[in-house]
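Input structure tokens:
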């Protein structure tokens, strides 16, 4: 191996190492930002407990003192996180500079890694590009789940922890207030359980394995009806028991995605869902009477949104076909055919 080849191999390995380190730093930075958001939310909650108008009363005075001490502690924790964030950001900038220098030495583009040119896509080959797309979709899905958990469950549970600590401090001083706080905590925990159930349902409906596809679709439609004024109809013709679970789950995801798109974008009054078991295929049709995709988004980017792209790829992986027809005044119709075998 020539000296040039050795140097190039070293730089490539170094680039891979630095790229991995950069990803780890991103995770740490995102975690700190999330923790700081939680602290800000907790400070808002604690600030509501401070009642300056009643500081002349002894029990209230003790409660106010506790709240103020809690705020000081939270502010101190936030400052420590800010210092850590500053250090990590500085390390990230240094890594970016090193990565840029190595890329320039290797003759690679210094733009974002995910922005592949058409020629590069051709060189990678269809199999590798398919693998990259699947990985991107997995990461996007993980990000969505993390965002859902952080925006709902994590913040609620963090607030409950604070409430528990507060109740343990004031229960001897203000038992009535402690009881009220416990009731609020109980309600918040119930809401969090429901939120987690919804997230689990989005990942994989629990009724799918026990009751089958048809019942799960009926349950999905009934749940959506309870949350919207849109008229939704579901028709199921026939039934086949020998269909593999992956095909059934794909059908469920297609109906779920089509329905969500219609509810969010169509502005229609009626949505019809048809699932038909044919001799060799499963036929799905979802149609609404809304404004149509092109009318809703003149740039037509909705036709290539992440959800719809993922739906198309799922259908293609099962050797199926998908047809999307949309008109400005006659709504949108999505038809899918998936081979049973």
């Amino acid at each position: 191996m020539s000296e040039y080849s050795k140097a190039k191999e070293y730089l490539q390995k170094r680039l891979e190492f630095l790229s991995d380190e950069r990803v780890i730093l991103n995770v740490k930075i995102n975690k700190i930002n999330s923790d700081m958001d939680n602290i800000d939310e907790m400070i808002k909650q604690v600030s509501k407990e401070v009642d300056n108008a009643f500081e002349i009363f002894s029990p209230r005075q003790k409660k106010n003192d506790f709240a103020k001490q809690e705020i000081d502690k939270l502010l101190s924790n936030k400052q420590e996180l800010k210092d850590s964030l500053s250090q990590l950001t500085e390390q990230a900038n240094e890594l970016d500079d090193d990565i840029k220098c190595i890329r320039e030495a290797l003759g690679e583009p210094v733009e974002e890694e995910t922005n592949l040119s058409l020629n590069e896509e051709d060189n990678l080959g269809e199999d590798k590009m398919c693998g990259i797309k699947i990985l991107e979709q997995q990461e996007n899905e993980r990000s969505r789940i993390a965002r859902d958990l952080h925006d709902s469950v994590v913040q609620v549970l963090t607030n409950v922890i604070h409430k528990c600590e507060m109740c343990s401090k004031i229960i001897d001083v203000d038992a009535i207030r402690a009881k009220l706080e416990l009731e609020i905590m109980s309600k918040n925990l119930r809401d969090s359980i429901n939120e987690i159930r919804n997230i689990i349902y989005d990942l994989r409906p629990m009724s799918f394995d026990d009751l089958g596809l048809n019942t799960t679709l009926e349950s999905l439609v009934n749940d959506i009806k309870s949350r919207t004024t849109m008229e939704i109809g579901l028709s199921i013709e026939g039934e086949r028991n020998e269909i593999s679970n992956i095909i059934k789950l794909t059908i469920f995801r297609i109906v779920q995605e089509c329905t969500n798109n219609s509810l969010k974008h169509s502005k229609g009054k009626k949505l019809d869902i048809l699932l038909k078991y044919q001799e060799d295929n499963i036929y799905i049709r979802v149609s609404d009477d809304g404004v149509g995709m092109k009318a809703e988004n003149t740039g037509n980017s909705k036709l290539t949104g992440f959800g719809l792209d993922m739906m198309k790829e799922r259908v293609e992986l099962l050797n199926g076909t998908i047809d999307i027809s949309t008109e400005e005044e006659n709504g949108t119709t999505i038809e899918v055919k998936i081979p049973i075998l």
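Residues 294 and 300 are 6 Å apart (CA to CA). The longest strand covers residues 331-339.
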